[in-house]
Design brief:
mainly alpha, 112 residues, 2 helices, 0% strand
């Protein structure tokens, strides 16, 4: 049926049809380029957001590691402080004993 209609068209009508088809084709090409440009922009934005999320994720992981290390360090410091107090108590207890058992200085010698 389309063949019959095309055969009935005159030269001017055929040129007009070709022009309309060419114009529609150019319009579709332009719309396609615009859609591709939008798709590229969306992809770039998505890549940027992914990078932002990845960076944020890594920062949070690092913060959690630091908190864990901080808690571990606090436990170690508490243990060291307890040991230091214990050693000070031992030193305080043994110091008077050491002074009692020490030989008396000879006459004419100073104790210092």
């Amino acid at each position: 049926m389309a063949d019959i209609k095309l055969k009935r068209l005159g030269r001017f009508e055929l040129l007009e049809l070709v022009y309309d088809m060419r114009k529609a084709n150019l319009d579709l090409i332009q719309r396609l380029e615009e859609a591709e440009a939008r798709a590229d922009k969306i992809q770039q934005e998505a890549d940027a957001r992914i990078e932002e999320f990845r960076t944020d994720y890594e920062q949070r992981i690092e913060e959690l590691r630091m908190k864990g290390a901080s808690a571990d360090l606090q436990k170690r410091m508490k243990t060291i402080e307890e040991q230091l107090k214990y050693f000070q108590q031992l030193a305080a207890q043994t110091q008077p004993d050491a002074l009692e058992n020490a030989p008396a200085p000879a006459p004419g010698e100073s104790g210092e």
